Amino acid sequence: MRTNKVRKGEHKVTDMISEKDCTKQVRQVGNQVGLLYYHFAKTLVNELGEAEGKRLILEAIRSYGNERGATIREKVENAGLELTIENFAKFSDLPSSGWEYTDEGTTYCCYAEAWMDRGVENLGRLYCEVDFALIKAYNPKIQATRVGSILDGDPCCKMVFE
């Protein structure tokens, strides 16, 4: 049975919410996604051993990135635009709230927070391989290089594209 009850202090979908509340809610969901990934990854490594577990994690992450990249590619092509990194960003499937960005890169990541809180940056780095699969599926001519990662203690996650 489905109800439309809203817990005290929460908003119904039809309510206007502040940017601050929106960011908070997106971060809560992002943190939960990071936590879910952590438990799947940890279970695979614990059950199958480090090498096989990590291999399967990377296989799944690359498949996920390939699907997302192909979807973004299709949207850009349907709009009659070139497959540039700028158009990739315009059609990104990430929410505009929740993460924090500067010209240097991503300075806050909901997923990374969940992994760093648990000391599993090594498993988080496997998830971050999604970025390379996304770009390759979107346009294999674009070369991506990661030059910074919050998970490595850098002030931001940053990639350069050629």
Describe the protein in words:
The protein has helices spanning 19-48, 50-78, 85-90, 110-117, 121-127, 130-138; strands at 100-102, 105-108, 144-148, 158-161. It is globular. The chain has a two-stranded antiparallel sheet with strand order 1-2. The mean pLDDT is 91. It has six helices and four strands. It is mostly helical and 162 residues long. The chain has one domain.
Sheet with the most strands: spatial strand order: 1-2
Tell me about the largest β-sheet: 2 strands, antiparallel
SSE arrangement, N to C: HHHEEHHHEE
Mean residue pLDDT = 91
Query: In percent, how much strand structure appears in the residues?
Result: 5-15%
The separation of the N and C termini measures 52 Å
Write down the Rg. Answer: 18 Å
Total number of domains: 1
| Global outline | globular
Number of helices: 6
User: How many DSSP-defined strands?
Assistant: 4
Q: Approximately how much helix is present in the residues?
A: 40-55%
Find the structural class using helix and strand composition: mainly alpha
Spans with pLDDT under 50 lasting ≥5 residues? none
Features:
mainly alpha, 162 residues, globular, two-stranded antiparallel ribbon, 6 helices, two-stranded antiparallel sheet
A few lines on this structure:
By secondary structure, this protein is mainly alpha-helical. The protein has helices at residues 19-48, 50-78, 85-90, 110-117, 121-127, 130-138; strands at 100-102, 105-108, 144-148, 158-161.
